[in-house]
Design a protein that fits this description.
Elements (H helix, E strand, L loop, with lengths): L7 E2 L4 H9 L1 H4 L35 E2 L9 E2 L19 E8 L11 H10 L2 E8 L3 H11 L5 E4 L7 H6 L7 H4 L15 H7 L8 E4 L9 E3 H7 L7 H13 L22 H6 L6 E3 L5 E3 L4 H15 L12 H9 L5 E2 L3 H7 L11 H4 E3 L12 E2 L4 E6 L8 H14 L6 H8 L6 E4 L2 E4 L3 H5 L21 H15 L1 E2 L9 H22 L7 H27 L4
């Protein structure tokens, strides 16, 4: 327990974090053998029972539901009279500890933190989070698991910390299936409103091991585009890969900002993540392709992937990319974008649409009409195949040491039910924006954060199992939320899953980070011409020999056990 009244933000060096991420399989992959992981029973495969999907608490003015259950509802206005979804404080008056990720500056101590003080009152507990910056998450996650004294609510992001799979499978966490499956979730109605695909894709071995932080099923693959540049250059939206090539080169070569200088580009980074819209355009599989006979083909093994590398390399040679695209950080890319020097940026539609309400761009007259998502076409026309995600960015677990204390587990689930309050509710308004008149105020009906950095830092611990990312509220002109929903409807309708979602490969756990780094090195190297296109053969061979072939076998075996599903 922490007793100095601070939200503890773990501070480690960037170098330490990167070193750990590269060698994650070496030291702590067996962390579950320590105190934390040995507290429960090893996980066995079982049939998944999803929580019942409960109806929305209320129908809000300006709410627009999609006909596609995998597309979030849109909200064109913010309710000025928030409604309550939790009528009784969820806690029993004791101390509750947590481990959470944060993207904010370290918060003030409890004695000087009005938001934290109010959170304690709302929950009726002494809430003591330990906060970890994103870069330090692998190191801190593993240290807490290995130490054996995990906090009561534990944020677990397995893609970021794959070694934690081992701990989970060895019984480090409480199986929440009996508390949440089927109609049992009615005891926690806000959790019952989390979409079924989120629960399905966050389950492991058929068990519910945590409450997910939900995301849209299709969350990327369409970069924000300078539509005003298209208009100025007389270019239409692309209908095939040739059109897109011409558009991207024009952004770099035809002076779209009109300043007479060669200082614009299509993109500022060259990697498989930012080039995902090109992978989609060429119909590259989403990580793996499931063949009719039940076998798997890795994306890099396909002709389509090789064609993408050739295409991106041609764009590089044509000058479409910023000259430091192989080295630009996310922060540097954003700076170039907002300085009005890029035609394309990002790929997360909700985030891109929302950013426009709070950020000015140099040279843009009307950011709501001049900057919109570019939905790529298929290579030869028609539709691209957009990538479905897991629909979750981590889960909030309960350590196995508490599994026999059912009252405690229920209390923690009630607290997470509070955290999962829906859009427009009093609970989510407080969690997302804080205390009115202190952390935020309403301007033109829009909750607007205080410019006081200290008051914003008070809320460093609010990244929890909130449904905010699956409730589309885009401040600005009223049509922005509906327009965002329309884009997601289009991409979701033409999306493909990763067939290995929910499957566990021990080799992927131990060797996945090194293979991911290999992929980054080869993609960037071939794209920028440091390596020849023929190097993809070497890449495929190295991938296979250094664990890829074994990963394939383990996934195929898991698919066979699951009946090919």
């Amino acid at each position: 327990m922490h007793d100095d009244g601070r939200l503890h933000t773990q501070q480690y060096s960037r170098r330490q974090a990167l070193g750990l991420a590269a060698g994650i399989a070496g030291s702590a992959v067996v962390a579950g053998c320590g105190g934390g992981g040995s507290a429960g029973t090893p996980v066995k495969k079982k049939a998944l029972q999803l929580p019942s999907l409960l109806p929305a608490a209320v129908k809000l003015p300006g709410e627009v539901d999609s006909a596609n259950p995998n597309v979030p509802p849109a909200f064109t206005e913010y309710p000025r009279t928030p409604y309550k979804t939790v009528t009784e404080p969820p806690g029993r008056g004791g101390t509750i500890t947590s481990f959470q990720i944060t993207y904010s500056a370290p918060p003030p101590p409890l004695s000087k933190n009005r938001w934290w003080q109010q959170l304690n009152k709302n929950l009726n507990v002494d809430y003591k989070p330990t906060l970890s910056p994103d870069a330090n998450l692998p190191e801190k996650t593993q240290a807490l698991i290995a130490g054996g004294d995990m906090p009561d609510i534990f944020y677990l992001n397995l893609p970021k910390v794959p070694a934690a799979y081992t701990s989970l499978l060895q019984g480090a966490f409480t199986d929440l299936t009996p508390y949440l499956a089927g109609d049992a979730v009615k005891d926690y109605p806000n959790l019952g409103r989390i979409p079924s695909y989120v629960w399905r894709n966050s389950a492991i071995q058929g068990g519910i091991w945590g409450v997910p932080h939900a995301e849209p099923l299709v969350n990327s693959g369409s970069p924000m585009c300078r539509m005003d540049w298209l208009k100025k250059l007389g270019i239409s939206l692309p209908k095939n890969s040739d059109d897109l090539f011409a558009l991207m080169v024009a952004f770099a070569k035809e002076d779209p900002d009109g300043d007479g200088r060669a200082n614009t580009w299509a993109m500022a980074t060259v990697n498989s993540g930012d080039c995902q819209f090109i992978l989609s355009m060429y119909h590259v599989p989403n990580n793996w392709k499931l063949n009719s006979a039940g076998s798997l083909t890795k994306d890099i093994e396909t002709d389509e992937y090789e064609a993408v590398l050739e295409y991106v390399n041609k764009l590089w040679k044509a000058g479409a990319f910023h000259p430091n695209s192989a080295g630009n950080t996310w922060e540097q890319k954003q700076a170039i974008w907002y300085n009005g020097q890029l035609g394309l940026n990002g790929g997360n539609i909700p985030a891109g649409m929302g950013d426009r309400s709070f950020n000015a761009m140099k040279g843009v007259k009307n950011i709501f009409t001049d900057v919109l998502p570019l939905v790529p076409p298929g290579k030869d026309g028609g539709n691209a195949n957009f990538y479905q995600t897991s629909g979750t960015f981590g889960i909030f677990c309960i350590p196995a040491k508490l599994s026999k204390n059912k009252d405690k587990v229920k209390e923690l689930l009630r607290i997470m039910n509070y955290f999962a309050a829906p859009f427009g509710s009093a609970e989510q308004t407080f969690l997302a924006y804080g205390i009115e008149g202190w952390n935020f105020s309403y301007k033109n009906g829009i909750p607007t954060s205080s410019s006081n950095a200290t008051r914003q830092a008070e809320m460093a611990g609010n990244y929890i199992n909130s449904p905010r990312e699956i409730e589309l509220y885009v401040p600005g002109p009223p049509n922005q939320s509906k327009e965002t929903q329309d884009y997601l409807t289009q991409t979701t309708a033409n999306s493909i899953p990763d067939p290995t979602i929910n499957l566990v490969s021990q080799t992927q756990v131990s060797k996945g980070p090194a293979l991911d780094q290999m992929a980054t090195d080869y993609f960037t190297g071939i794209a920028t011409g440091r390596k020849p296109l023929s190097a993809i053969k070497e890449w495929r061979q190295q991938w296979s020999q250094q664990g890829g072939e074994q990963i394939r076998k383990e996934y195929e075996q898991a698919l066979h056990k699951n009946g090919g599903k």
